Amino acid sequence: MDIEAEIRALQLDSAEDDNGTVNPEDAKPEEVEMTDKVEEVEMSDKVEEEGTKDEVDTKPQPVQAEPKVKDKEVAALEDAEAPDEMESEKKRHLNVVFIGHVDAGKSTTGGQILFLSGQVDDRTIQKYEKEAKDKSRESWYMAYIMDTNEEERVKGKTVEVGRAHFETETTRFTILDAPGHKSYVPNMISGASQADVGVLVISARKGEFETGYERGGQTREHVQLAKTLGVTKLLVVVNKMDDHTVNWSKERYDEIESKMTPFLRSSGYNVKKDVVFLPISGLVGTNMKTRLDKSTCPWWNGPCLFEALDSIEVPLRDPKGPFRMPIIDKFKDMGTVVMGKVESGSVCEGDSLLVMPNKAQVKVLAVYCDENKVRRAGPGENLRVRLSGIEEEDVMEGFVLSSVVKPISAVTEFTAQLQILELLDNAIFTAGYKAVLHIHSVVEECEIVELLQQIDPKTRKPMKKKVLFVKNGAVVVCRVQVNSMICIEKFSDFPQLGRFTLRTEGKTVAVGKVTDLPKSSSA
Biased-composition ranges for Basic and acidic residues (predicted)? Predict the structure, then answer.
């Protein structure tokens, strides 16, 4: 032991004499020996494989020992981080928004999906069951999985857009549980604007479908909004089929389908290609994870809800396009963290980006997808991005995280094509008309400055005569002005950032798309 100690002391002295620092390689000769042995084995293996007997290669070279170990460590680190990255690329990702009239069973269906896919354990369910029973609302317990705050649980109405994740064998899903009540339509708009797929929940119970479908019911408004906001695929789930007024009746199911089909068509959906109808019971979980039993419902031969979700084709997105991520929320956490869905391009740790419209240069410190830290993320992902270079109070909902080379346009005026849905009583749509504009995560007051031309709905060509005002159902090209700078794109370039709705006094009056922007609008 003494001899070893002396040798060690000598080595330390000589290392300090060399450059004033201790060389860790010299400080631990056992490690070097081990490395050398490993190296010798590796080298001899290589020599055997190659069939060469070059002696220079087989000699141990302790000088290279440390860099090699470092390389291995780096490789190991990369391997450790790689799964996150691979995980996000291995399974495709879809955002699903649950829409429909109040009390159709959206939160209950969402909660049941999470329970069936193993995201919620039995004990939690028992706790919610007891809580619901105490409030004399036994059938609400599944909804408590999605409706997390007390106000929502007491009233039984979703207010905020609930968010949760689940996976099937091929797909990672993000559930967005939108509120059905007409007072909370702006919240529903923010949820639907992030979604790729809509699940329209309809109650089959006698009287409930009719209430939701009639004029003023949320079933109609939600469908029109979903189409405008870019929800291209729709699953229409006829819920509460187990209710005693329905009892899995084929007549009731067919009646609902026959009434909904023409309406979905008039809202712009291709019913054959983009819409799937299926019966379920959200409370009991029938026809959700596994197909319907013939003893329950002999006439249904179609897929269950999970199969239908799995078979939806993911919309094409461009991972190499200019980066665009509308900001839906922000908070402070070791820097400024912004949340949103990537509409175009990809983001990596270390990227330099712009926060528009205030043109603040920021650096990406970290990227989180679902709850996991990832090194890069592509379009369609819901992210939390930690930034440096901007304070949390300088970021607003509706701002857009954008690439530096091709920043998003920031404007106060734009040209748009509008379809008037239903104006308030006695209102006419003319220059000077004021409304609230909803475009991606922007909510801003706007004014129609000028009507440019009316479009003939049959020929889809502009009419000759000058237009001063239009009524319900008209399609018109107009100039729209907003009070503050907003970030938008032409619909032809970025559909998600160029489609919008106009609402006034709690009612959706028009839907539209941005057709042109002022020339000097880019940063």
Answer: 25-58
